[in-house]
Amino acid sequence: MQARSALFDLFGDHIRPRGGRAPVAALVKLLAPLGIAAPAVRTAVSRMVRQGWLHPLRLSAGPGYLLTPKAARRLDEAAARIYRTSKVSWDGKFDLLVLDPPGGRRDRQRLCANLTYLGYGMLDERTWVATRTADEVDGLLIDYDVRYERFTAAHAAGTAGSAALVRRAWNLAEIGQAYERFVEEQRPLLARVTVRSSDEEAYAARFRLVHAWRGFLFRDPQLPPALLPERWPGSSAAAFFDRHAARLRPAADRYVDLCLDHSQRG
């Protein structure tokens, strides 16, 4: 687990609901159970400041960091997808992008990763499609200085044609297998955490669970049920995630509050 990725998880799942700010000492303490050393935390924090995700500030407990508005928006949107707090609906229309890809390979890769995160699938190098609009996409393409056109489209063949289009844009079999592996890998790890486990153990197990689940934000566009295969593995995986995330939440919250309290008291 990389320090920068873990910091996004930490701020999104624990620090954001507590005001979006924390002393650096607390960040170090909270990532220690994940095997992330203090120098790696400090390096990742500095990088996130340079990228505009965190803002340094002085807290009563010492040096600290606050989420920027850009980071808060991204984390709130991610939380809504992780915990599925908004209903996935679909009006039968696609958001269609036709663009001129950036010339540099690195820029193309970054743009692809960002579009995938926003829920777009690639039909070809120039054409991307999504079942929901993303407010961020125009700003993203402008930032990359990409020429593009954007359309609202409906498939002439109705749901059957739309489902076929979806299978071109996303490898649903591969995503489904990833959900199955997620459950297989997490089940034995979570079974070890019982009511007799410490709060730190429960926190670390839940953190790894959420971290693994968050990875699906970059793979699964969360398509409407009408376009998914029958017995979609993502549904049972979501129920598994919800059950264990809720089970471990009280102990994880106690551990986070303890670390924040100790940091504030020095």
The poorly predicted ranges are none
In N-to-C order, the SSE pattern is HEHHEEHEHEEHEHHHH
Structural class: alpha+beta
Question: Strand fraction band?
Answer: 5-15%
The helix content is: 55-70%
**Widest sheet: strand ordering:** 5-6-4-7
Mean pLDDT: 91
- Cα shape: globular
The CATH architecture of the largest domain can be given as: Up-down Bundle
- Count of discrete structural domains: 3
What's the main sheet like?
4 strands, antiparallel
Distance between the termini: 28 Å
**CATH classification, class level of the largest domain:** Mainly Alpha
CATH topology of the largest domain: Methane Monooxygenase Hydroxylase, Chain G, domain 1
**Number of helical stretches of at least 4 residues:** 10
Q: Over all CA atoms, what is the radius of gyration?
A: 20 Å
Number of strands: 7
Topology, element by element:
Elements: H1 3-15, E1 21-23, H2 24-31, H3 38-50, E2 54-59, E3 62-67, H4 69-82, E4 93-99, H5 105-117, E5 121-124, E6 127-130, H6 137-143, E7 148-154, H7 158-169, H8 172-191, H9 199-214, H10 233-264
Antiparallel strand pairs: 1-3, 2-3, 4-6, 4-7, 5-6
Helix pairs in contact: 1-4, 1-9, 2-10, 8-9, 8-10, 9-10
Q: Care to describe what's here?
A:
The protein folds into 3 domains: 73 residues, Orthogonal Bundle (Arc Repressor Mutant, subunit A), CATH 1.10.10; 62 residues, UreE, C-terminal domain (Alpha-Beta Plaits), CATH 3.30.70; 94 residues, Methane Monooxygenase Hydroxylase, Chain G, domain 1. It is an alpha+beta fold and 266 residues long.
Give structural attributes:
globular, three-stranded antiparallel beta sheet, 266 residues, Alpha-Beta Plaits, Arc Repressor Mutant, subunit A, Methane Monooxygenase Hydroxylase, Chain G, domain 1
